[in-house]
Amino acid sequence: MAPTLSKPTLFLGLLAAQSLATPTPDKRSAAPSCVNNASNGQVYQGTNSQWNIECGTDYAGGDMGMSWVDSFEACIRDCDATTGCLDVAFVQPNACYKKNVLTPAVANAGVWTAKKAGASSSSSSLTCVNNAANGQSYTTSKGIFNIECGVDYAGGDLSSSTVASFEACINDCASTTGCIDVSYVNGACYKKSTLNSAVQVSSVWTAKLSTASTSSGPSCPASNGLSTTVSTGGAYNILCGTDYAGGDMKEVDTASFEACLEACDQNTGCVAVSYVAPSCYLKNVLNTPNAVSYVWGATKAIDVPTACPAAEGKTVTDESGNSYTIKCDYDSPGFDFYVVKADSFDACMDVCAGQQDCVGIAWVPDYNDCWPKYYMPDYAFFSDATLNYDVWLAIRDAEEPELEEPTEQEGWNTPEPEEPVVSWSDDEEE
């Protein structure tokens, strides 16, 4: 007898169920993208939070850091894993800006945003987006700061820091000794101890302590093309947006452009500076100038010494204001007061300025011999070609004698013409 199956209905049911079952596919959603607004309005599920995709929207400012990533999705995952991150702004191809403060949203076609679900903009946060806070005041422990959107007081930097918001930047300044102003640029906070002249820079959010005043020292672009003399005595020509690349002798940090010029004065051999606050580059060599918009340049105003043959026939002036005509490679022998040492042609002329009745000088550059003269006749100039050294002459310009006008009482001492005396003889009389 054939064996019987126990519970055949259950057995067949199990076989049928097994044959009808199909494996569930591992479905993964497409990577988020704002190309053609593909993911706009969708929700991305991160490991820790959900993220709302907003194409063409930016919450400007509030940056806590920036990183380079290989995709929008990687940018979202970076924020999802970062404590305090509320939002990302992704800019193709790989820039990821993480934010911990949400400012009011603005339209920006180049930005792909993912905002943490539940996060919202703070209506009380300070922002210069659309000039929202321009002209407002912000109170701190140090005093009241005035908000100026799109304005920068370039230079005068004390230090810088990375902060979460514009408010945090102002509070950082309030707690920093000597800080009177901040420039806030997308999370970067530049604290300043000196206020130079204001310039328009749309990306800068400024907060200035209400008691602070603008420095009267040189600044760019206000001083471009001008000459200035600093407290250490040096005179400088200001060249805004100009850099003499290279030729650096050292770099020092200074609180202002003026302090940079003073540092040049205090370092022997310095002939120019390039200032990119707070860095002051002192130069002892002037290379070819280049146009660099953010550099504040200055060259020391140095008197060019009088020298032959370039000075031939020219007129120069000594320290007392006397004028001299230069005659190169000629000597005027004799008629000397004395001979002294002078380390330059100009110094020899200054000797003449201090000598009564001096009419000129002969200077021998090979020996620094200076011969001030009391007489230099025109006929007594001889070429130095026969000598074994050069001689440079400076003939002091003679002043025209002044004629004194006679007074009305004195009149001119011109004798009156006498009438001729005519004698008549008796023979001539009729």
From TrEMBL:
Residues 220-308 form the Apple domain. Residues 399-430 are annotated as: Disordered. Residues 399-408 have a biased composition (Acidic residues). Pfam families: PAN_4 (PF14295). This is Apple domain-containing protein. Transmembrane segments: none annotated. Residues 1-21 form the signal peptide. Keywords: Signal.
